Amino acid sequence: MMNIEVVNLSFIFSEGIKGLLTLGTIGVVFSVILIILNEKLKVKEDPLVEEILKVLPGVDCGACGFPSCKMYGLQIIKERKLNSFCKVGGREVTEKIANILNIKVTPESSFKMVAVVRCGAEIGEKKVSTIYRGPKSCRFAHLVGGNIDCKYGCLGLGDCVDVCPVGAISIKKGKAEVDIKKCIGCGRCIEVCPRNLLTLVPVLVKEQQEEKLSVYYVACNNKEKALYVKNVCSRGCLGCGICTRTKNSPFYLQENLAYLDYKRKADSKLLEEIRNKCPTKCIERNES
Amino acid sequence: MKELFQIFISTVLIHNFVLSYFLGLCPFLGVSGKEKSALGMGLAVIFVMTLSSSVSWLIYHFILVKLGLVFLAYVVFILVIASLVQIVEMFVRRYSPALFKALGIYLPLITTNCAILGCVLFMIARDYHFWAAVVFGFSGGVGFLLVLLIMAGIREELNYADVPWVFKGASISLITAGLLALTFMGFSGLLTS
What we know:
The complex is a heterodimer of chains A (288) and B (193).
Chain A: H1 2-40, H2 47-55, H3 69-79, H4 90-101, E1 113-117, H5 138-143, H6 159-163, E2 169-172, E3 175-178, H7 188-192, E4 198-202, E5 204-205, E6 213-218, H8 226-232, E7 251-254, E8 257-260, H9 268-277, E9 283-287
Antiparallel strand pairs in A: 1-4, 2-3, 5-6, 6-9, 7-8
Helix pairs in contact in A: 2-3, 2-4
Chain B: H1 2-14, H2 25-30, H3 35-67, H4 73-95, H5 97-103, H6 106-110, H7 114-125, H8 130-158, H9 170-185
Helix pairs in contact in B: 1-8, 3-4, 3-7, 3-8, 4-5, 4-7, 7-8
């Protein structure tokens, strides 16, 4: 008995050593080949790429239209022009990149984009004549017609809250609100809202206090005529057109609904004046 | 020659890695969204499969069998595949940036593609000689590319189809894959042994 065990042990031992050595040798051979090839086949990269990558947020969100931050960096180095810009980094990052590349920042490329909710009605302002007891999800509620009477308004069940990667959206008084300081403008909430209430708009940066951001928008999405709007909501846009009639007004009407044209330049003074004129107070200002 | 041809036909159509052995399903479902990326992935797989089956054959027969260490086959094959993928990636990056751009993301993915390891293990189990092993690896890759392209074509069309809500997304692609596998069963009478 003793003998057999001893033989077995030594057999296993020698076999194990042999296996380890073989495996180790193969591994070492391959790793040496890899190391040599890695040194020989190194690709020289533009040193600018590293610098720009340091500045960029590095989240690879794809909002600029390129699959990753690196691809975006390569493209702007190639073009030497800021045709698309980093939405997450906003003005700061754009300026840093422009410094690295020695190019000028065009005004379009320095805007930060944020999401706004185009419904400003709180609980009590929007009429509710049904009781909704379904799952707490906007998309479910929208399937059965919604939990409020308005067919266009915010359902307030917070699908956008769940999908926001930075927690910038919250439900307050039955409507979604965006914290524009936190918002990175990735646009994920746009896809999820069944009523298409969220849009990305450029932020107005006040010239002297750069940290203070503000954005004006029409907080209504109801395209029906004034009579219907009044029936379901006290904050809805009636399509009266008062906002379009001020001089140099950037507002315009379409399908009984006012829109703000962000491409036209307007200072905050003018916008504030128009905001106060709106009879239903549905032009809103979001500040941080 | 006839034997090699038989191996080619049988691996591409009759015993396709994806549709009859169900190997490499992850990239099959993951990369078949667009035809362009499917083509890139398929070409990369052909390349790596051919290389790894031939190199593995050499290592298996000239090192492992001679030393009586056949039980190490699995570990060694994984080692070989991973290193080969790395080497291929380096070469492609250096000498063909355009190809690297097209294949770039898919090359490292291949390391964990079970179709490659499956190919190597089948080749050992079936006792192929060297050239048969090379052809087997190459045709396995061709079969993978073929199926990936067919699937990508169908899925691109599916984007425009009016799919019922419950079937949208992953379920309809799995149903498509199942139907595709059934269709490929029709090839089973192609060769008589």
